[in-house]
Amino acid sequence: MQIKAPSWHVIKWIVGVFAGLAVIGGIIGALIVSLGLVTISARPPHNALTRTILHYTFKRSTANAGGSVDVPADLDSPARVALGIQHYANVCSSCHGGPELGQSPVALSMRPRPQHLASVVGEFSDEQLFVILRDGVRFSAMPAWPASQNFDEIWSVVAFLRALPDMTNAEYVAATQRALPEDAPELAFDAPDQLSGLDVGIKAPPMDEYLYATPGTGWHEYASNGDVIATCAACHGAKGSGDATAGQAPNLTVPSAAYMTKALREYANGTRPSGIMTTVAASLTDAQIKGLSEYYASLPDIAPPRDQAALGDPVAGEIIATAGLPDQALPACYTCHQNVSEAAGMLIPPIAGQSAAYVRHRLDAFAEPYWTGAGTSAWQPMHWIAKSLNPQQRADLAAYFAQQAPGGRAPVATLQPMDAANARQLVEGVCKECHTVEGVGGPSGEYPNLTVQTATYLDLQLHAFRSGNREAERMRQVAEKLSDKDMSDLAQYFGTPAALPSPTPQDVFATAEEIAVGGEIASNGIPDKNIPACLSCHGPEPTSALPIIARLQGQAPRYIQDRLQALGSEKSADLDTISPMHAIARDMTVDERHDVAAWFAAQAPLPK
Questions:
Q1: Most buried pick, 129, 134, 326, 416, via CB within 10 A?
Q2: How far is Cα 97 from Cα 121, in angstroms, rounded to an integer?
Q3: Sign of CA dihedral 153, 156, 157, 162
Q4: CB distance 459 to 488 below 8 Å
Q5: Which CATH class is domain 196-298?
Q6: What is the pLDDT of residues 481-501, one digit of tens each?
Q7: Residues 252 and 299 sit within 8 Å (Cβ to Cβ)
Q8: Torsion sign over Cα 80, 85, 90, 93
Q9: What whole-number percentage of the chain has pLDDT above 70?
Q10: Comparing C-alpha atoms, which of 62, 82, 234, 243 is closest to residue 157?
Q11: Between 1.10.760.10, 2.40.40.20, 1.10.150.20, 3.40.1280.10, what CATH number should domain 420-495 receive?
Q12: How far is it between the farthest Cα atoms of the chain?
């Protein structure tokens, strides 16, 4: 018997019936919701079906997301466990309990209830635990990690969770007991004069129902109780060296008070990413932040804990730290991190005397593709620098810095002694065509006056041209033919003697009024466009402290203008991680670029 397909009219009738039922069902559902008949009470437990669906969905979702996660090699490190247990005690224990300890009655009154982790952690893989901590769980009280970067620190919590089922109550209590170190001051919580903004998580409406501000209330009221230093000592140790967590937390005897104050403020407002530190710092008043910074800066410098893993070669790390990697346009680490005076207005932390584990994890975090910067500084070069290093080089640097004594000035490798005859031969054969024998460029201003720069800057730029990190086809062709010794000789030939004045432009470049406008931008920036003052980086003190920053005073005006035009174009968009200048030049008008160039050109070259 042949089965006849339903006619089009029958199909339309069936579809119409189901559509009508759907509309009726929607109306009934909306009516039930509108009348408040749907219970949202958290008092009765979920029924078996709801509980099964929720847990199955939860486990399948986290298992899927964990497929793209790589577990670090040092996950079973006791140091990671030591750091993870402190964050767990600060935050997680309020809901999830502890070893041989029950859960809070408040947590057990939630729906869904947070699990007792010591009982269920074995049901999840390392990758799943990481995903749950990083992303949280929607429609439950499980929050996402309170930072959108710096996820390496999550692994320390995972490390503790792995150790949790075998940990005794006595071990847990001993590890989480906190006491004020000897002679440490109590830091009273005084009512703040005003609240500061908090940039954490994705803000969503209704905005008037939330208060993104600091200081705020914490999970444990160490701030209002004045027990701030006791809380800090849990990770950083009684003497501040980081020994309590075997170097996972930084050595606080190394940085200055000014740097720590800046860092704590940025942790507090969320601009410096750290789920661990933002949780702590967001509870502190500004007076407590200053008190903490002054206290730890006053402690004697202490060597960091030794790294038992010994993943790096300190000899190889010393080469990068003192000489950099010129072919990758990477300057020596010490150029910025050890010998820079805070008087130059740059709060750059020293890193000699930090533990190998801490430095390695920080460099690895900087190298992650999601890293976009930290803090409120105009330029954040560490993502580009760290990703230019391979994991072994980062470990080598960490091993080297951990062996250095905290404090004091550190060595910086200098250029090889100049071969003057080789330099003059290269100048005659190559450089003078554009830059003249003296290196000052021609009256057209098309080519830069090399003598206003330092030898260190010129050497780094020649390597950048050769490697392609700085685009200029003509200079690339020249640099490709130069050896490292040739570059060093040329850099010193032009960069070591006193600067010479640039040739007078063929035509009048700017009026006095335009120069004055440029001076205003150079000194004060353009606040409406969030453009900083040029002199905050290119002024006498910063360029003296950091020889890798270009000196613009006395440079040819047309050259500065052309560079600003090029830096502001889309072809320079990928330079953001190397230099802040693309974003700055992009937002300036043609006239603003011209006027700034005119002002710098009108200044006397800086002494070297």
A1: 129
A2: 12
A3: positive
A4: yes
A5: mainly alpha
A6: 999 999 999 999 999 999 999
A7: yes
A8: positive
A9: 96
A10: 82
A11: 1.10.760.10
A12: 105
Cis preceding-peptide flag for 215 (omega within 30 of 0): yes
- Which pair of tokens denotes residue 452? 């206003």
Q: Burial code of 346-366, b = ≥16 C-beta within 10 A, e = fewer?
A: bbbbbbbbbbbbbbbbbbbbb
Task: Give strand pairing partners of 101.
Answer: 98
Helix axis angle, 286-298 to 228-236, nearest 10°:
50
pLDDT single digits (tens) 307-362: 766 689 999 999 999 989 988 888 899 888 876 766 667 788 999 999 999 999 99
CATH 2.60.40.1080 at 512-601, yes or no: no
Measured distance CA(403)–CA(306) in Å, rounded:
9
How far apart are the C-alpha atoms of 601 and 599, rounded to whole Å? 5
What residues contact 356, with CB distance under 8 A and at least 6 apart? 247, 304, 307, 309, 310, 311, 312, 395, 398, 399, 401, 402
CA-to-CA separations, 540 to 259, 334, 544, 553, in angstroms, rounded: 22, 20, 6, 9
Architecture of domain 71-176: Orthogonal Bundle (1.10)
Tokens linked to 521: 């931008």
Decide: residue 541, CB within 10 A, 0-12 exposed, 13-18 middle, 19+ buried: middle
For the residues 227-244, what does the mean pLDDT come to? Answer: 96
Amino acid 500 reads L
The encoded tokens of residue 206 equal 């209704």
Q: 281-304, pLDDT tens digit by residue?
A: 999 999 999 999 999 999 999 999
Q: Which CATH superfamily is domain 314-403 in?
A: Cytochrome c-like domain (1.10.760.10)
User: Which residues, in sequence order, are bridge partners of residue 214?
Assistant: 196
- Alpha carbon 406 to its chain centroid, in Å, reads 23
Distance CA 436, CA 422 (A): 16
Q: Nearest to residue 91, comparing CAs of 28, 143, 166? A: 143
The rounded distance, in Å, linking the Cα atoms of 142 and 135 is 9
Residues 6+ positions from 306 with CB-CB distance below 8 Å: 247, 402
Average pLDDT over residues 32-44: 81
On the 0-12 / 13-18 / 19+ scale of CB atoms within 10 A, 26 is exposed
Measured N-to-C along each axis, helices 484-495 and 455-467 cross at an angle, to the nearest 10 degrees, of 140
